[in-house]
Predict the 3D structure of the following.
Amino acid sequence: MQVRRFIPLLGFGLLSVLLFRGLSLDPTALPAARLGQPFPEFAKPELQSGEAIGVADLSQRPALVNVWATWCYSCRVEHPYLLELASAGVPIYGLNYKDDAVKARAWLTQLGDPYALNIVDVEGSLGLDLGVYGAPETYVIDRDGKIVHRHVGILDSRVFHADFGAWFSSVVEGTVPLAQRGSVAK
């Protein structure tokens, strides 16, 4: 009978340990499902034109694929830096994830559009194929069309210089004048 008194205390202790371990995990270190594999095939509408596009339309390599949405506060935080990267010649493709296309077009009109193309993924199927956990996430596609890097969370100058420099070294090192940065390659 004395042992029964300690069962709630033991349960609380076990729950506390599990919560502490869960809170100490780094969400940016989540595993990438398609790392080293080709970008998945898709047939989706492009946000601005409405035309059907596919993986062949992501022609500039290396390039970034940025998962974003209007409902994502962190996406708004990283957006000015994406505009800066695009103006420096980094090719960026958007994946508008589980969002309303009308709101997304208005958002880009208001804040600027850093994307060469923007894939509409209303139902999230392409995101599922990529292994997207949420927005924002940014992927690097190499010259062979393979996913070679993934970053979960806000892309900023510190992250770009530390994690993306190998693919966009001329931008990171500042060796290409701003007016000539249209042909960034590895």
Residues 43 and 54 are 5 Å apart (CA to CA). Strands lie at 43-45, 52-54, 63-68, 92-97, 117-121, 137-141, 147-152. The mean pLDDT is 85.
